[in-house]
From TrEMBL:
It holds the Pfam family HhH-GPD. It comes from the Bacteria. The lineage of its organism: Bacteria, Bacillati, Bacillota, Bacilli, Bacillales. It comes from Paenibacillus qinlingensis. This is DNA-3-methyladenine glycosylase II. Signal peptide: none annotated.
């Protein structure tokens, strides 16, 4: 990992100040290309300028549907909104909720799975010690980084990440960047790699 950090350079996490809006946009973006998701999110923001649970619930479902949001996703967003307002999902006191409890709360919302919840903790909240064992890209990059033999359970992260706590989110950022810059697919061990151009 030290060699990978040397190759890539400094990476940082920047928390968002709009956690509810980030979750809504994550739900909208599911299973869509980046371009399609951006178009739909822009339309939604045009009819709901302040993305709050109250404003979302007050907006006519058909108006949201006309933006390109599917009916199932509208149901997921409304379920999230209701649970935020009832306090079942505590987005107002995030500093008081640990990772395990917040994952439990988030995955109680229809349409939010473990991976989406983990990405929220990592990218939106900037929590430093999140590791997504269900992320196939991270598993592949961890296998490359540590030159691990084939495993039946495919859990290369579980083997590699023991020493990364309490900064596993940052380790994840470096593994994703190793994929994006072509290091993982280079066919070379990390020790033999040169600094990628787009690092």
């Amino acid at each position: 990992m030290a060699r990978l950090i040397e190759l890539i350079g400094e990476l940082t996490l920047t928390p968002s100040f709009r956690p509810y809006e980030s979750l809504v946009m994550s739900i909208i973006s599911q299973q869509l290309s980046a371009k399609a998701a951006l178009t739909i999110k822009t339309r939604v923001k045009a009819i709901i300028p302040a993305i709050t649970p109250e404003d979302v619930l007050a907006t006519d479902e058909e108006a949201i549907r006309q933006c390109g949001v599917s009916y199932p996703k509208i149901r997921y967003i409304r379920d999230l909104s209701t649970k935020v307002l009832s306090g079942e999902v505590m987005l107002d006191q995030l500093q008081d909720v640990d990772n395990a409890e917040l994952l439990k709360q988030l995955t109680s919302v229809k349409g939010i799975g473990v991976w989406t919840a983990e990405m929220f903790l990592l990218f939106t909240l900037g929590r430093p010690d999140i590791l997504s064992l269900g992320d196939a890209g991270l598993q592949r990059a961890a296998r490359w980084l540590h030159v691990l033999p084939e495993r039946q359970d495919k859990n290369y992260l579980g083997v590699a990440a023991e020493g990364w706590a309490p900064y596993r989110s940052f380790a994840s950022l470096y593994l994703w960047r190793a994929i994006d810059t072509g290091l993982v697919d280079s066919g070379l061990p990390v020790e033999a790699c040169e600094k990628p151009l787009q690092a």
